[in-house]
Amino acid sequence: MVRCDTAIGAEASPPPGFAVVGGVVALPTRRTLQVSRTELPGGGTGWFAKQGLLVRRDRLAELTVPEDLRDRFWLTWGGMEHPAARVTAGPCGGAARWVAFAGGYVVRAPACLPVRVRGRGGEHHEVRVPVGAPCPERPSPVIR
């Protein structure tokens, strides 16, 4: 769980290059995220892509890594002690529409990776994030 008191800022709207997914989070989908070496959960060396997460302040958001990738791909925001395959954030107070959290993605190897997003009681939406490697050209969903 990403705690609201770990937020690093707030925004009126997501910046260009972010896709609003499920009406609850905004993630970068157009530019390839730069990676740097890091330690993987359970040991070994992998890659970290620093990228903030924007969450609608009045919504609960759940982000998950597909089961078949859980030994190669993890999420970490809001000062989490360890990267995880599932992260929840919100709802948070405040006046701005979007709350920002520091963190990013931990991967065994750079790739275009799927992130599943769901709001409280909502359906799952999937978006591909270019973590150290570009995603094939195709329109990213902008689901509001």
What does this structure look like?
A hairpin with a 5-residue loop joins β4 (36-39) and β5. Mean pLDDT is 91; it is low at 139-144. Strands 1-10-6-3-2 form a five-stranded antiparallel sheet, with no helix packed on it. It contains no helices and 13 strands. The protein has a domain at 4-28 and 57-128. The two termini are 23 Å apart. With 144 residues, it is an all-beta fold. The protein has strands spanning 9-11, 18-21, 25-28, 36-39, 45-50, 53-56, 61-64, 73-77, 86-89, 98-101, 103-107, 111-119, 125-131. The relative contact order is 0.30.
Topology readout:
Layout: E1 9-11, E2 18-21, E3 25-28, E4 36-39, E5 45-50, E6 53-56, E7 61-64, E8 73-77, E9 86-89, E10 98-101, E11 103-107, E12 111-119, E13 125-131
Antiparallel strand pairs: 1-10, 2-3, 3-6, 4-5, 5-11, 6-10, 7-9, 7-12, 8-11, 12-13
Described by the principal axes of the CA atoms, the overall outline is: globular
Number of helices: 0
Strand content: 35-45%
Order of helices and strands: EEEEEEEEEEEEE
Contiguous uncertain segments of 5+ residues = 139-144
How are the strands ordered across the major sheet? 1-10-6-3-2
- Overall pLDDT score: 91
- Largest β-sheet summary: 5 strands, antiparallel
Q: What level of helicity do the residues show? A: under 10%
- Strand segment count: 13
Find the structural class using helix and strand composition: mainly beta
- Terminal CA distance reads 23 Å
| Rg, alpha carbons | 14 Å
